[in-house]
Amino acid sequence: MPSSRQIHPHLPEPPTLQAHAMDELRYIRQAMERAGSFTAVPGWGGVLMGITALVAALAASRQFNPEAWIATWVEEAVLAVCIGGWALLRKARAVNMPLLSGPGLRFSLSFAPPLLVGVLLTVGLYRAGAVNVLPGVWLLLYGTGVVTGGAFSVRIVPVMGLCFIALGSAAIFCQLSLGNWFMAAGFGGLQIIFGFIIARRYGG
């Protein structure tokens, strides 16, 4: 006579509560990284970059040939990159935000290409003898990088980029001597104003 006991198929053991919770936390963290904003844009670092740009503009205005003028601004660009990189790392550590993942990575990948294009265009325009358009090109490309990178940051950052684009649009039609003061207004004045706003609203 067959047994009245029901034969149950072998079922896999359900995942433990701890493993399920870890999966949920991992999913939430990834979702927050995808949706988050890059808030480590340095404010006081931007102010310092603006101050050095004003000094560079004054020094560049005293140069008597295009090569010396370009060299002055290239030196300022290298200094600004060092200041900005140091301030960015310092603030990212303070707010515990990684630079190589999530919003930080997207910000960097969006900001860097226009700057690289600026380097290549500087060489090409110098060789073509079109030095007078360099201030406008630099302002336009820096502004473009700030706008594209700022899409993953706080709202004030792309606004700053649009202001740089507006200045560059005017500077590109001016002679080199006037373009130098557009550079002072952008890399000096705008950088100081927006750096101060960012520092006050979002921390140093």
Whole-Å distance between the termini?
Answer: 83 Å
Content of β-strand: under 5%
Mean pLDDT: 83
The tally of strands reads: 0
Q: Could you list the spans in which at least 5 consecutive residues all have pLDDT below 50?
A: 30-35
Order of helices and strands: HHHHHHH
Structural class: mainly alpha
- Per DSSP, the total helix count is 7
Question: What is the C-alpha radius of gyration, as a whole number of Å?
Answer: 25 Å
Largest sheet: none
Which features would summarize this protein structure in a list?
single chain; 204 residues; mainly alpha; 7 helices; 0% strand; elongated
What does this structure look like?
This protein has 204 residues and is mostly helical. It has one domain (39-202). It is built from seven helices and no strands. The chain has helices spanning 17-35, 44-60, 66-94, 102-127, 134-150, 156-171, 176-202. α2 packs antiparallel against α3 and α4 runs antiparallel to α5 (134-150). The longest helix has 29 residues, at 66-94. The termini are far apart.
